[in-house]
């Protein structure tokens, strides 16, 4: 059997980037031989094994053929006579289809090194179309490598467009898609991910509500892309990036109900984790109030702070304020005035209300809650008055 390093580890070493995970390819072996050498099979479905000491993944060389719609519709052929070249050919991009042997020699039958030099994301063969998730993968790689000048080859973008228009993307499971979406949003240029999906007509399939924003004209779409850019420049965590993305579903001219319904639909469809879902809904609901915070009466301010549960979940309110800040920064200078300090100050004023005097007065249970709210409202009234002077 021959063993090669493949995929991201070879690509990233050639790009001079840190390598976090190594994938290995085994040519000329059977599953029985792998197990006899101490490798542990990963699952029943794929011919992938874990190294007994390092725990790294070793996959048997295989060819893949699509037998139906969706991810379930795969058959593959793994056998000792599948060659290295055949295995590399079924892969997504030429830059991911370079192998390295144990002498450090590169085997690169599809021009991966040439495309690395030319900064091109190019598909290896028509087999690209056998896994529609690759549309998202290429958009994610574009978001990751945009800063170093990478672009998608015209013929690959055309193939992605054909795949998107065929309706195949709707067959992807939410879990696989979310993995790509969440990783893409954390890349250095997350707006490139959305732009690429829009360019190849995949946005209308994956996030129809967002595609509608782009259709309304450049201003709303451009603002959304700018907000994502700001998120990356300010190192914002995933919930902030996700909430900013979903806020772009609708423009501020829309009333709140359809906006929240669109956000909820996308949250559910993508099966986003709970912290992402919650922040997106809260941003959808309170975004306008946050931008008008100084005009809010103390009771509306308190209602917002209570809804965020700032006493037990301070980080969620911080993330909300950060999301508003990113949105404001993406506007033209002077266009959107957001006063985050005012909101922080209001949260501090509400939090500063001590509980102990109320406990000492004998308040308990629901009565204690009411008394606390009343005391916080008083504190916010004072805060609003002082701030407006
Ligand atoms: N849908 C997919 C997923 C993976 N691959 C191939 O499997 C390799 C390993 O995949 P993965 O670990 O998911 O990605 P990496 O390329 O290592 O990239 P990343 O840095 O994003 O992990 C890829 O390089 C590519 O050759 C593929 O062709 N099609």
From TrEMBL:
Q: Give EC number(s), comma-separated.
A: 2.7.7.72
Q: What class of enzyme is it?
A: transferase
Q: Which of this chain's residues are annotated to bind ATP? A: 8, 11, 91, 137, 140
The name on file for this protein is CCA-adding enzyme
Provenance organism? Stutzerimonas kunmingensis
> Pfam families from the xrefs?
PolyA_pol, PolyA_pol_RNAbd
Q: Name one GO biological process term.
A: RNA repair
What's in the misc comment field?
A single active site specifically recognizes both ATP and CTP and is responsible for their addition.
InterPro entries (UniProt xref): CCA_bact (IPR012006), NT_sf (IPR043519), PolA_pol_head_dom (IPR002646), PolyA_RNA-bd (IPR032828), tRNA_CCA-adding_enzyme (IPR050124)
Q: Which GO MF term does the entry hold, naming one? A: magnesium ion binding
Reactions the enzyme catalyzes: a tRNA precursor + 2 CTP + ATP = a tRNA with a 3' CCA end + 3 diphosphate; a tRNA with a 3' CCA end + 2 CTP + ATP = a tRNA with a 3' CCACCA end + 3 diphosphate
The domain of life for this entry's organism is Bacteria
**SUPFAM superfamilies reported in the protein's UniProt record:** Nucleotidyltransferase, Poly A polymerase C-terminal region-like
């Amino acid at each position: 059997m021959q063993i090669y390093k493949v995929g991201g580890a070879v690509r990233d070493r050639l790009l001079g980037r840190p390598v976090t995970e190594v994938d290995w390819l085994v040519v000329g072996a059977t599953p029985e031989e792998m197990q006899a050498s101490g490798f542990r099979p990963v699952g029943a479905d794929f011919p992938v094994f874990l190294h007994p000491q390092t725990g790294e993944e070793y996959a048997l060389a295989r060819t893949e053929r699509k037998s139906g719609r969706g991810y379930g519709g795969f058959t593959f052929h793994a056998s000792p006579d599948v060659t290295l070249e055949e295995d590399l050919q079924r892969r997504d991009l030429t830059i991911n289809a370079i192998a390295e042997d144990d002498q450090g020699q590169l085997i690169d039958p599809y021009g991966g090194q040439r495309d690395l030099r030319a900064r091109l994301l190019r598909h290896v063969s028509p087999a690209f179309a056998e896994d529609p998730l690759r549309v998202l993968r290429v958009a994610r790689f574009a978001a990751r490598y945009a800063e170093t000048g990478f672009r998608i080859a015209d013929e690959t973008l055309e193939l992605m467009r054909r795949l998107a228009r065929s309706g195949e993307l709707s067959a992807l499971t939410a879990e696989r898609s979310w993995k790509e979406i969440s990783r893409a949003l954390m890349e250095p240029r997350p707006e490139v991910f959305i732009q690429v999906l829009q360019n190849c007509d995949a946005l209308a399939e994956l996030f129809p509500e967002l595609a509608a924003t782009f259709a309304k004209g450049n201003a709303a779409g451009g603002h959304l892309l700018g907000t994502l850019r700001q998120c990356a420049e300010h190192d914002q965590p995933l919930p902030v990036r996700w909430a900013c993305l979903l806020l772009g579903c609708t423009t501020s001219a829309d009333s709140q109900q359809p906006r929240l319904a669109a956000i909820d639909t996308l949250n559910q469809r993508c099966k986003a984790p709970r912290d992402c879902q919650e922040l997106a809904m809260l941003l959808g609901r309170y975004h306008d109030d946050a931008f008008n915070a100084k005009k809010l009466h103390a009771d509306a301010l308190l209602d917002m702070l209570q809804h965020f549960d700032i006493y037990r979940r301070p980080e969620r309110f911080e993330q909300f304020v950060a999301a508003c800040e990113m949105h404001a920064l993406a506007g033209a200078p002077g266009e959107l005035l957001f006063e985050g300090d005012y909101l922080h100050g209001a949260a501090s004023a509400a939090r500063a209300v001590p509980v102990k005097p109320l406990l000492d007065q004998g308040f308990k249970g629901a009565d204690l809650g009411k008394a606390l709210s009343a005391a916080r409202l008083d504190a916010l009234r004072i805060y609003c008055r002082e701030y407006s002077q």
